[in-house]
Amino acid sequence: MDIRAQVSMVFHLDKCIGCHTCSVACKNIWTDRKGAEYQWWNNVETKPGTGYPGKWEDQEIYKGGWVRDAKGRIRLKGAGKSKGLFNIFHNPNFPTVEDYYEPFTYNYLNLIEAPPGDDQPTARPISMITGEPIDVKMGPNWDDDLGGSADYARNDPNLAELTPAEQEAMFQLERMAFFYLPRICNHCLNPACVASCPSGAIYKRGEDGIVLINQKVCRAWRMCVTACPYKKTYYNWHTGKSEKCILCYPRMEAGYAPACMHSCVGRIRYIGVLLYDADRIEAVASADEKDLIDRQLDILMNPFDDAVIASAKANGIPDSTIKAAQNSPAYKFIKEWGMALPLHPEFRTLPMLWYVPPLLPVMASVMPTDGAQKGKLNEMAKTWTDNWLYDTSTDELWGTVEQTRFPLKYLASLFSAGNTAPVSDRLKKLMAVRIYRRWKTVGDIPESKMAQALRDTGLTQEAAEGIFYLTALAKFNDRFVIPAAHREQAMEMLEFTGDVKGNSGFGFREKAERGM
User: pTM value?
Assistant: First the structure.
């Protein structure tokens, strides 16, 4: 057992309002400079939608992530030694600026410096790359709130598992539903970007698992951009280096939450420490696709277990980090309550950004308008037939998860490699907590129904209270449990000039500078 610490994030999608405050905060701090104009380390996508860059989830286009071969071993889908050698001068799977968008600004100066005339002066869009006027055709949030549904939302790769009738029903005005999907670097346990880098510039920090790029060592091979299936590594065309989300580690080391999380209006974000067994990473990443979720959960260890604590201390994990893991909101949502799921686990990178799936909309029960058809409600809910209307009475407010307007197959394509059972389980828990709170605060739900809902999902009243508190009432320090940085250990690592066996060798600083 090789216990290590990993900073992990949970995003509660039922709470995201799509305000993009997180994106603006990140942009102003980290990517407001030349060569990074098109980069959004944090972006918020509308689902259904093609996202940023366009169709990033379709790995038949971009060849990102890992794949499992016939012998049960994993290999990089579009990068690696042989593929990298053949594509060293031309990478056919590398996203172009058109896949993202050509960054632009406006010629605002023309509004005040235009000569007198009969026409109102305008501020033409100007490319931030060439400085020339351009016709804007794409942006990072171009399909926000289902804007341009025919060109964007309908081309969402996750719709492939739905029947044509189900797809059509999702875009009928009276049934239309969408949710927001904020994305940052997942800081994966099995990062494809790290494995693909020919120069070894990308590395995973031992103390917290944050994935970083050494700018001195980066040689602009850009294999990391191809390998990352989430397309969260970017190439800076001005500096000739790759860049990515650093999880605001300077803020984290000072005890502050990352900028995107600190500024989140909906308070959807949680951050905490997870302890995991590094010896099992390869076995988990190469598991059968249907087992990936359970195997990834199994690798996360109980921070209260004495054996786990002993192994963690043997690896040099300080007591403050172990305590942070014991109080981690991420551990509660992911492992203790089983409320969150990773994004596209089939990419096999073992992402450490987890999502509580959306139970949308709140009043999701629907009833057929034809009274004679009410006996066929369940059948209609599965076949998406016509003549549905909302029914907001108490009896019908708590319908089954299968009756919601958002198809389980779509959510499963996002969060559970197509398996609807894990998504259904999480949504039922969300519904059970709502039923419990309705029983407790309003009192129009029978106690027997409340108790049955909790039993069916394996929750206790104590767990339901904990979920409600952390979801709706949690204070800042409850949502962001950040371990203290140990500067004395960092200085020891920088000054270290030999390995633990006493052999001579370059120190960590020299290794970084030499690209080792």
Answer: 0.88
